[in-house]
Write a structure and sequence with these properties.
Number of strands: 5
Helix content: over 70%
Number of helices: 14
Strand content: 5-15%
Number of domains: 4
Oligomer: single chain
Distance between the termini: 98 Å
Order of helices and strands: HHHEEEHEHEHHHHHHHHH
């Protein structure tokens, strides 16, 4: 669990973290851990606590400690230090065969250093008071104990060789002890949980049953009664809303019930976890019926898309048969709309499939999702292709229209250019017959024709105005100019 803020913790964890842990740390002037760090540390010590209890219970079973008269968790106060210790198992002197009381301590792993030192000092006080002390530490964990603790143990072995006994079970023997004790721990935890559950208020039935609502919809569809896609969508949204509300109500009730029992953190958290699991199972049972509606909705959405694809193709075919132009913009819009609709259904399915795989491990999730996506791609391949063809047809028609419009524009521009050329040549005094024969009116001209026309323009533009002369001189000049003009062409 990733807990970045206290809100990410369960209610019981949040209560413990804020009201107990944070308050205690601040009172001692210490910096509290973050929620995630506290949660990791809490889980570590909880596992250590369970292992410690299993070791104690295993010794009870294998050594028959209760039958011998050993009492669990006896408290003693050291008068010299004023500190109290809790002995894991204590045999009163009136039940001991030799009339000597026995204190038994079981250590399975690394303990809080200060607490362990206080305990060992307390056990030395018990030895000094005349008790025997039995200390059980697994052989492979002796070296893990703090150095100061090991020194205290060695001193007690030296000073009280007859009364202080250190037992170090082998790893194999330790595992037998733990296995025997874990069965007892689990059985007692289940009994305590059942007792706490029996104290909870009876569960009320919801006003609206998701199961009944969903079953009524699927029954209508199965029996052929008309349920429109819009109605199916609305019902699907309502079912998910109701299921979500009921799931949250279950979780809220679980947290509230666990808190109202007034138990300690461990018992409250255990009860809370159990009820959360029950809420999760109830939600899974509800969602089975919602899932049936979800599958039907996705199926109907695809059928609607297929009908729309068929309708678009049919409209295009009818326009073609009737000689009517096909609206390529409408085709492009239909292609975009249908593609988006199918992508939308795919995204909905992806979210739904991820929810279906949420409880699987990572490898199983990947295998499941990969298989489902591959199956969907096989199923949708033809539909994707038909939608793509609509887009391709829209692009083809658009390209043809653009090419046709370009050709018309080019022809109009060519005709306009030819008309301008003819006008220019006529203005230069070239007869239409010469223009036709020489091809000077064509667009474009050959390089030679371009050079000839350029020379004519230059000659025209450079021709200076002359004094007008009358009589024969004017006629002669006119003949000369006319002859020169004809010679140019």
């Amino acid at each position: 669990m990733s807990a970045n803020t206290p809100d990410d913790l369960t209610p019981a964890q949040r209560q413990q973290y804020i009201n107990n842990y944070i308050t205690g740390k601040l009172a001692r002037g210490e910096i509290p851990r973050s929620p995630a760090e506290w949660l990791r540390a809490n889980e570590f010590w909880q596992k250590a606590d369970i292992q410690g209890k299993a070791f104690e219970k295993g010794l009870d079973v294998l050594l028959h400690l209760p039958e011998q008269g050993y009492e669990a968790h006896k408290q003693f106060k050291d008068k010299s230090t004023g500190k109290s210790i809790f002995v894991d198992r204590h045999l009163p002197e009136d039940k001991a065969k030799d009339d000597i009381a026995v204190s038994l301590e079981a250590k399975t792993g690394t303990s809080n250093k200060d607490r362990l030192i206080d305990q060992l000092i307390g056990y030395r006080a018990r030895l000094e008071a005349g008790d025997k002390v039995l200390l059980y530490i697994p052989k492979d964990r002796v070296a893990d104990q703090p150095k100061a603790a090991r020194q205290l143990i060695e001193l007690m072995k030296r000073d009280f060789p007859e009364k202080f006994i250190l037992r170090t079970p082998s790893p194999k023997a330790t595992q037998r002890i733990l296995d025997a004790g874990m069965k007892v721990v689990q059985r007692e935890a289940q009994q305590k949980l059942e007792q706490n559950l029996a104290r909870l208020p009876a569960e009320r039935d919801p006003i609206i049953s998701v199961k009944d609502f969903a079953k009524s919809i699927t029954k209508d569809i199965r029996e052929g009664r008309e349920v429109s896609l819009a109605e199916l969508r609305a019902a699907h949204e309502m079912l998910n809303d109701i299921a979500g509300q009921q799931r949250q109500e279950d979780l809220d009730t679980a947290a509230k019930n666990a808190k109202e029992l007034g138990k300690g953190f461990r018992d409250t958290h255990s009860l809370e976890q159990h009820q959360f699991e029950l809420a999760k199972e109830k939600n899974s049972s509800r969602m089975v019926y919602v899932d049936a509606v979800t599958v039907e909705l996705h199926k109907r959405q695809r059928e609607e898309i297929e009908r729309d694809v068929k309708a678009v193709n049919q409209q295009a075919a009818e326009a073609l048969a009737q000689g009517k132009p096909i609206d390529h913009e409408a085709l492009a819009k239909a292609h975009l709309t249908l593609g988006n609709a199918l992508d939308g259904v795919t995204r909905e399915e992806d979210r739904w499939l991820e929810g279906q795989a949420a409880d699987l491990d990572k490898q199983a999730q990947q295998a499941f999702l990969s298989h489902m996506v591959e199956t969907r791609e096989d199923r949708d391949r033809e539909l994707h292709a038909r939608i793509a063809l609509i887009g391709q047809e829209a692009d083809r028609i658009k390209a043809e229209r653009e090419a046709s419009a370009k050709a018309v524009a080019e022809r109009a521009a060519h005709a306009q250019a030819m008309e301008a050329r003819w006008k220019e040549l006529r203005d230069l005094g070239v007869s239409e017959q010469v223009i036709k024969i020489s091809g000077l009116g064509q667009v474009p001209l050959t390089p030679a024709q371009e050079a000839q026309l350029r020379a004519s323009r230059e000659a025209r533009d450079s021709h200076a105005p002359e004094v007008q002369r009358g009589g024969r001189a004017a006629e002669r000049d006119g003949r000369e100019r006319g002859g020169q003009g004809r010679d140019r062409w």
